Amino acid sequence: MQGFSALFQPGNIGKLRLENRLIMNAMGTVLVDGEGNVTERMFDYYRARARGGVGLIVTQCALVSADATPPFTWAMYDDKFTPGLSRLVEVIHEQGAKVSVQLMHYGLLLIFGGFIPEGMSIKVPSITSWLVGDKPYEEMGEADIERYLEDFAQAARRAKEAGADAVELHACHGCLVSTFLSPVTNHRTDQYGGSVENRTRFARRILERIKQKAGKDFPVVVKLNGSDDIEGGITIDEVVRQAAILEEAGADAISISSGLEFWTSLSIPCYAYPEGPMVPLAEKVKQAVRVPVIAAGKIGPELAEQIIRNGKIDFIGMGRPLLADPELPNKLREGRREDVCWCVYCNNCIRVEPGQGSCSVNPSLYREGKYPFPPAEPPKRVMVVGGGIAGMQAAVLMAQRGHQVSLYEKSAELGGQWNIAAAQPGKEGYAAFTDYLRRSLDRCGVPVTLGIEVTKERVLEMKPDAVVVATGAVPRGLNIPGASSNHVVQANDVIMGKAETKGSVVVIGGRFIGMEVALWLAEQGKEVSLVTLAGLGENGSKLEGMTYRTLARRLIELRVPLYVHTAALEITQSSVVIGWGAEVFSLPAATVVLAVGAQSDNKLAQELDGVIPEIYTIGDCVSPGDAAAAIYQAARMAAKI
What we know:
Layout: E1 11-13, E2 16-18, E3 22-24, H1 40-51, E4 56-58, E5 62-63, H2 82-94, E6 98-104, E7 122-124, E8 137-139, H3 142-161, E9 166-171, H4 176-181, H5 196-214, E10 220-225, H6 236-249, E11 253-257, H7 279-286, E12 293-296, H8 301-309, E13 315-318, H9 320-324, H10 328-333, E14 381-385, H11 389-401, E15 404-409, H12 417-422, H13 431-444, E16 448-450, H14 456-462, E17 466-469, E18 473-475, E19 488-490, H15 491-495, E20 505-508, H16 512-523, E21 528-531, H17 545-557, E22 562-563, E23 567-571, E24 575-580, E25 583-588, E26 591-594, E27 598-600, H18 603-608, E28 615-617, H19 627-640
Parallel strand pairs: 3-4, 3-13, 4-6, 5-6, 6-9, 7-8, 9-10, 10-11, 11-12, 12-13, 14-15, 14-17, 15-16, 17-28, 19-26, 20-21, 20-26, 21-22
Antiparallel strand pairs: 1-2, 18-27, 23-24, 24-25
Helix pairs in contact: 1-2, 3-5, 5-6, 11-13, 11-19, 16-17
């Protein structure tokens, strides 16, 4: 087992025996239909993770009440949904994993989705001063509470009748149950508010009602916030008391997460967080209860092995790593750690819409039924130009189909723009993906030529059947006076150590790279300002919210001045002139860092157009975008060629 033996020891949750200590956390998907029913794509998705060797799969949340079930969310408020769940349970059981159904009422989390369906209200324990705007908030009365107790219990009954092995009560992140538990969202003065015991009463009564309907031996896990991660929110001392109350009421295990999703980012920690930020919270709960405790949130295999082996935690919850590589458990158990495609915690997977979803390192996410691709008929000689992640991914997938593939990269190493990301503080883990693709190229026998810029003449000389151009993009400049001055540098060059920043610095550009560079320089003690023509963290539309909050929060903590919706008008030798409202001001700037996006490098593709019978373009040379878009384009092309 190569150092991970503790992870692959069996364990129990109540009377449920699990073959190992790895649990797939509940994660929302885009695979439910508009009426809340399971789909074939959903079966494919869970089948892949169950086959990958995880001990228990906690399904995405099943919504227990008809009054809080937006379209494309999984419903469990009626018996008509039981057959679909029964089939899903069969699919997972066929692959040897156990199944727990997560039960939830959205409550305040409805606002996290960005829209409220017409006629739907947001149920809250109490109306607080920060509930502003025109959203339909509604404070719950005794009749509401009684109705929801029964809704949770009936949903648990359906799960048991469908063959599920357990249920998980979602009581964290700002959902309905969570808002009762937290003092920042619960200001009630009746038996459900005030003391820790009173704020726990709603969750306790749900648990007790579930045990009545589904049986005292049917395992129930309760998922709690170890911290709300906000001033005035729940603290670990209160959580320890809540966990003990719920254990006494019949909880068979306690799962610890953290953060209110509509305010903070700790619930889904991105690359900027240290490893295992919630583990210390889970360890404190473990010390206070006798039932098993589950820890989650950016826990790598070595840390997981250590805390399980030392008895500090009983089970490890994994989410995004199993999106990146469903076979992760099998690979660890078989001693093949180097074969794992590691999650980089970029949170691209959170940016989903109905029927769509993405992962920066796994193009098959939510498309599992289409992979692996069938053998190529007939195989072709394919030349891939560009060794970034799009070109590397395309070369691997085409070679796996049987094509004779060769890869060319003009620089001295593979990776392209991804290497710049991996060079940033906090993003060192990004290098794991290029390492994975390099090993995949070696396994597939793809010859790689570095340090040669491919020209039209070279392509004609090689006479390939097809050419895939993945030449990427170059940083965009700024068309204002002074933008070509010597003290104006590109963010990419700052990150790679090719450009030095001296004195006061103005970063122009407020997307993630601008935020990251400004943060990095401020952490070095430099005087930094950030100017962006759009809003902070925008690229025509809002960028991924959890990462945005993480970076923005830190910029505010470091007191970096942020000039949003502000145009840079001119760069002088000592300042950046900005248009701020109706006024013009000058910001001191000994160095100006540009982070204003990229433009496609598609010169070779244009030269080959009409010359080569089959030419394909993928990645940033088509249109600058994120990594998930690039490798998905690569996969679509590899399936077609």
